């Protein structure tokens, strides 16, 4: 299992655009095959950092998921929305594996 963490730098004057973008992914991502943990918008501290986090079985599954996402009507609409509104200034993806499992087994 892989966890994809997307780190966004957003325009702080367009936070509501990012929140709409996040809600749209909340529908499209699970439908296209990834286990969405959530999208997170700035609250305190930084006004420009936001995150999207989801689990996917493997890099091969990720490639299939991305193909489905580009075919999904809401996925396409969301990509276009981001390009049109220009609220995403930077987007970086990192794939991680859980290293601390099992949790809470110490004495």
Question: Could you give a short description of this structure?
Answer:
With 107 residues, this protein is α+β, with helices and mostly antiparallel strands. The chain is built from three helices and four strands. It has a four-stranded antiparallel beta sheet.
Characteristic key phrases:
107 residues, alpha+beta, Alpha-Beta Plaits, four-stranded antiparallel sheet, 4 strands, 41% helix, 30% strand, globular
Give structural notes.
With 107 residues, this protein is of the alpha+beta class. The protein has one domain (2-92): 2-Layer Sandwich (Alpha-Beta Plaits), CATH 3.30.70. It contains 3 helices and 4 strands, in the order E-H-E-E-H-H-E. The chain has a 4-stranded antiparallel sheet with strand order 2-3-1-4. A hairpin with an 8-residue loop joins strand 2 (35-40) and strand 3 (49-56). Helix 1 runs antiparallel to helix 3 (73-85). The longest helix is centred in the N-terminal third of the chain and has 18 residues, at 15-32. The radius of gyration is 15 Å and the shape is globular. The protein starts with a strand and ends in an 11-residue tail after the last strand.
């Amino acid at each position: 299992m892989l966890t994809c963490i997307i780190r966004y730098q957003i325009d702080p004057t367009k936070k509501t655009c990012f929140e709409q973008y996040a809600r749209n992914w909340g529908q499209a991502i699970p439908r296209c095959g990834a286990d969405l943990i959530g999208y997170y918008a700035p609250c305190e501290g930084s006004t420009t950092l936001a995150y999207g986090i989801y689990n996917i079985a493997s890099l091969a599954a990720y490639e299939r998921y991305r193909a489905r996402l580009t075919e999904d009507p809401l996925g396409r609409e969301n990509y276009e929305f981001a390009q049109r509104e220009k609220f995403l200034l930077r987007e970086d993806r990192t794939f991680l594996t859980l290293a601390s499992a099992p949790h809470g087994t110490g004495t």
